[in-house]
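Service request form, structural biology core

Requester: graduate student, group of Dr. S.
Request type: structure prediction, single chain
Budget code: on file
Notes: please return the result as structure tokens.

Sequence provided:
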Amino acid sequence: MKSASAGSSRSLASLPDSRRRPLYEQLKESIYLGDLKPGQHLVESALAGMYEVSRTPIREALLRLEQDGLVVRGGDGLMVRDHSPAEILDLYEVRILLESEAGRAAAERRTTHDLLTLRKAAKRYEAVDVDNPRGMVEANREFHEAVWRCTHQLALLDLLERLELHLGRFPNTTLTYPNRREQTIEQHRAIVQAIEARDQEQAGKLCGRHFSDARDIRLALWESED
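Core staff response, request fulfilled:
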């Protein structure tokens, strides 16, 4: 398995924006975006060199990530958690239920300001270049976070953020699947319209279907690997 090396991801740690963020957030983002990959060993000394800090804050950040379930301990030390296909499908099923509820709650509770934020997030996703899968991942996440914030339900938001951390580490393959980008754009637009119209049933149905489609693509990808 791979281990974290100072040379492989130093550019990430040296970004001006990331240097102003807590180390825990930087590492979490690296896992989410795939800079630190599932199954990759996490060596404190290498990470300390990569992020130009001592080993103590690295150790503290890794402990929090372990508590989040993103990092696990094995015989060779800490590594980025790698979910089995069955676990990933279970996560999708739970997320489909929660996203459906988020859509209904967003349609009921959204404010005018929420709608402005949601529309901007949808347009940002549409504007991302198709040859920029990382940008699509980030913009797609921003859109769904905007939907969650429309619910004004902190417990639901927390649960969805946790699920996103686990599922979001396997994002590029679904967003770059043939015709998926066009499909997500249309689905995002429909979700915004349903939330704007306060159509709770339709918003819930659309949000659930959006992630059912993502689950089905994941299944198709696994089948094509056999």
